[in-house]
């Protein structure tokens, strides 16, 4: 079949391709609005009580439009969690040495600008303890990975003479996670009174040498700068 020649000049994409890119960009924008709205709804209501109706209302889309992008509530929850993990990934360092503790301080510092995300984590991590919850395995693995990450870092610091404690690296790691979760929960109740970064830094200073703490603070500053840039450019 003979077809008409394209009306665009050489090197220019046909109008249909440009339209496809425009539709794709619009679809991406809608998805980001939906995930942002779902973050708010899950953070307030939890997974089980959250509804497509409320998410669609906050996102400004129809329930059918929401289902087109996210067919199930499980898929929507996975997108919310993935968005959270992507924001944090820019601050994660290899699980060796003092960089791990700088990453911890950078993460909690960045979370101070994301109360909705902190609320979501605090609510869902508790709600997901039953084995039949969609996020049970996610949080179980997350805590295991974080304990392993910090235990290795504590062990390396102790071996280098940078840290000292009567506790084992594994116990130090578990205690650090409990401290972080507990402080963030208190911070949600009273953000003016609870300075999570300052308190966590104080606990680290009780374990690490002054020289090691100087290195941790310097690395944290670099990571915080990267985190702030990531948050400024992240979709709303």
Structure description:
The protein is mostly helical and 236 residues long. It has 2 domains: 62 residues, Homeodomain-like (Arc Repressor Mutant, subunit A, Orthogonal Bundle); 147 residues, no CATH class. The protein contains 10 helices and no strands. The longest helix is centred in the N-terminal third of the chain and has 35 residues. The relative contact order is 0.11.
Count every beta strand, where a strand is a DSSP E run of 2 or more residues.
0
Helix content: over 70%
The low-confidence runs, each spanning 5 or more residues with pLDDT under 50, are: 1-18
Helical region count?
A: 10
**How many separate domains make up the residues?**
2
Distance between the termini: 48 Å
Shape: elongated
SSE ordering? HHHHHHHHHH
Major beta-sheet overview: none
Q: Mind telling me the C-alpha Rg? A: 22 Å
The average pLDDT score comes to: 81
Instruction: Bin the strand percentage.
Output: under 5%
Briefly characterize the structure.
The protein has 236 residues and is mainly α.
Descriptive labels:
Arc Repressor Mutant, subunit A, 2 domains, 0% strand, mainly alpha, elongated, 236 residues
Task: Map the helices and strands.
Blueprint: H1 15-49, H2 52-59, H3 63-69, H4 73-89, H5 99-111, H6 115-127, H7 136-159, H8 169-189, H9 196-205, H10 210-233
Helix pairs in contact: 1-2, 1-4, 1-6, 2-3, 5-9, 5-10, 6-8, 7-8
């Amino acid at each position: 079949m003979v077809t008409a020649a394209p009306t665009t000049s050489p090197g220019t994409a046909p109008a249909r391709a440009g339209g496809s890119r425009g539709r794709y960009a619009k679809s991406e924008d809608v998805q980001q609005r939906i995930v942002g709205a779902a973050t708010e709804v899950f953070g307030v209501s939890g997974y089980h009580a959250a509804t497509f109706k409320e998410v669609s209302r906050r996102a400004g889309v129809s329930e059918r439009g929401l289902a087109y992008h996210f067919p199930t509530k499980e898929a929507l929850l996975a997108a919310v969690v993935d968005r959270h993990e992507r924001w944090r990934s820019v601050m994660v360092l290899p699980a060796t040495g003092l960089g791990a503790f700088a990453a911890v301080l950078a993460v909690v510092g960045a979370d101070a600008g994301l109360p909705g995300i902190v609320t979501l984590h605090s609510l869902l991590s508790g709600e997901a303890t039953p084995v039949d919850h969609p996020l049970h395995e996610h949080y179980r693995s997350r805590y295991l990975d974080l304990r392993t990450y910090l235990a290795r870092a504590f062990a390396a610091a102790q071996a280098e003479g940078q840290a000292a404690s009567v506790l084992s690296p594994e116990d130090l790691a578990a205690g650090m996670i409990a401290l972080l979760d507990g402080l963030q929960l208190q911070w949600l109740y009273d953000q003016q009174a609870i300075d999570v970064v300052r308190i966590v830094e104080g606990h680290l200073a009780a374990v690490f040498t002054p020289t090691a703490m100087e290195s941790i603070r310097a690395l944290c500053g670099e990571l915080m700068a990267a985190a702030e840039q990531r948050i400024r450019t992240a979709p709303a």
